[in-house]
Amino acid sequence: MEKKPFAIKSIPDITAYTNTALDERKVHRPPSEEIRFYLAVASGDVEYVQQNCLEGRFYRPEGGAGILSKNPVTNLKYHYVITISIICRFCSEAGIDHEFAYNLADYYIGLLDSVKTEEEIIQLHDAIVMAITYHMQTFSHMLSSSKVVDEALDYISKHILERITADNVADALQLSRSYFSRLFKTETNLSFSDYVRKEKVKVAENLLRYSDYSIIEISNYLGYSTQSYFSQVFKKETGYSPKDFRDKFFKTVWHTKFENLANFTTPKK
């Protein structure tokens, strides 16, 4: 079948918009500010990105966010798609495998299907942006490590919500478990199980701080056998029980180095 050219019945009058809609237009944030944010994520600048999220730069019109739709939920979804798409491309430029970066963008954008309100979109945006920033921080710290460990860290990041063992990763990388475990500990100064435990606790910290999900929901989401075991692991790692951590840090400004937040995806109730 011969493809016919798309017929445009009427072309929008851009000149007319420029001349007549001046009063309705708003001041957008300068491109340099947006680029600074994307570069901060791609370089793993956790403090800058954290502050940007706390200030609501993503969604507040007075902060320079454009109005892409009159429907507020649709408007935020448009902004979310744009932000995640550009961030992942900046991360690719920073050295992350481009297919991994693009697949990550596809996955994170797909999470929009499960959120329905403005608040949920904002929470998802802030958590995902922080997740990517922490991943890039780890990536930048491990640039000098072997390709094997880089691939292992990517695997852990993508499967952090599952029960992950050294056998799983060694099989995925087609290595013996003993060789992989020795190499991993040599280059990270942590055993595989210790690293995974710390990463899971970071996810839990992020959920306790940014979401309204209950402690048992978070425990189940992260694959712990019981809530009591999750609480035991969490307190041993952070010095706080999950409840005490939430009471102290829920949606508050951090006064320490931002070393205790990491990967986050919205759990489904």
TrEMBL record:
<feature type="domain" description="HTH araC/xylS-type">
    <location>
        <begin position="150"/>
        <end position="248"/>
    </location>
</feature>
<dbReference type="InterPro" id="IPR018060">
    <property type="entry name" value="HTH_AraC"/>
</dbReference>
<dbReference type="Pfam" id="PF12833">
    <property type="entry name" value="HTH_18"/>
</dbReference>
<dbReference type="InterPro" id="IPR018062">
    <property type="entry name" value="HTH_AraC-typ_CS"/>
</dbReference>
<dbReference type="InterPro" id="IPR009057">
    <property type="entry name" value="Homeodomain-like_sf"/>
</dbReference>
<dbReference type="GO" id="GO:0003700">
    <property type="term" value="F:DNA-binding transcription factor activity"/>
</dbReference>
<protein>
    <submittedName>
        <fullName>Helix-turn-helix transcriptional regulator</fullName>
    </submittedName>
</protein>
<keyword id="KW-0804">Transcription</keyword>
<keyword id="KW-0805">Transcription regulation</keyword>
<dbReference type="GO" id="GO:0043565">
    <property type="term" value="F:sequence-specific DNA binding"/>
</dbReference>
<keyword id="KW-0238">DNA-binding</keyword>
<dbReference type="InterPro" id="IPR020449">
    <property type="entry name" value="Tscrpt_reg_AraC-type_HTH"/>
</dbReference>
